[in-house]
Fold:
Amino acid sequence: MIEAVNLINEKQPFVSNDSFSSMIDSLQDIGLLETADIARTVTKLVETNTSFSLKSVFSRDSRHEKQKVLQGTEEIYLAIRKCIKDLYFADSKNYLLIDGLDDVLSVENFEPKVITGLIKACDEINTFFRKSTLFLKIIIFIRSDILSICRDTNISKILRDSKIELNWKIEDPSDMSSSRLIQLVRRRFDDTWGNETPFLDIWNEIFSPIESSKSSLEYVLENIIFRPRDILQFMLEAQKSYVTGHKINEITLKAVLYNYSNDYFVASMQDELTGFFSDSIVTTLPTILMKLGQKEFSVTDFKIECSRHKEFEDIDSTDLLKKMFDDGYIGQHRPKEVKEYTVFKYRNPRETFIEEHECIVHRGLMRSLTIV
Structure:
């Protein structure tokens, strides 16, 4: 709620409301509006022992105005609600965005209830704003794997009512340019090419065709995971090799993909596993995969190799494979009467890890680990 007050004060600097002005003055006096970093705000709130003096919130009559000492987060929260519930800014809409929750995974003894508490608190505040004259909404950006470990008696209802899932799956391979993922990349091209040029025309201005049954775009997508940061990281790598007026040919494209995989893929995998598994396991995992020596392996093969490393003594290696599957770094071969087929969860979110089926390392990860 303090962040909400900060947002209102920043976006609506001419609020003619005595109670709100008093609230701003009191929060500024103890340094709670000095930073845009919510983590620092929380730290500061703890350091002040969650108490401060406030006037003009409970009475607008200056003759009866008196100083009120707010003690504890609940009193501060209710006072802020009382102060801002009648503010009105016509059609103005304000959004408070909370991002960067991945950082909590690096905290020793991380407890998912911290995230669960944040979700519940934001849901309560959003419910309050829906009933007030002030349009303000809090939006939390959170990875699906972090969300999946959050448990609470009311969390499923909150998610059912409020969650919007950003799905980057390419639904129609024959029309990739219409997918959300490609459209997001397309926006990065607008400044140079404008928004009238079709995406594929822009792509073909940058990349030459390859000698294959697939297009250069299909080829690139087979070597990344369908997430904005992955394809944008690839484009940043490609930018190093692109010279205006000279297309990136197949040889250069393969070199770009090698550099991309080598500089980004392993580190990205380790980042996503951090917090779910110990640092020693995350650090040793690339070595395990390299020692397996091939792109296909069974769960049993993986367990045997893990058993040779003391870091893996206290974990179920199958859980590690499930996490890698959910994150897209490995896929699985599915048996079929005529011919087996390969699945990756980022291509089909409905897929689940099946322990009996053979695993396959993602092409981008194979390249960075020099697996053939």
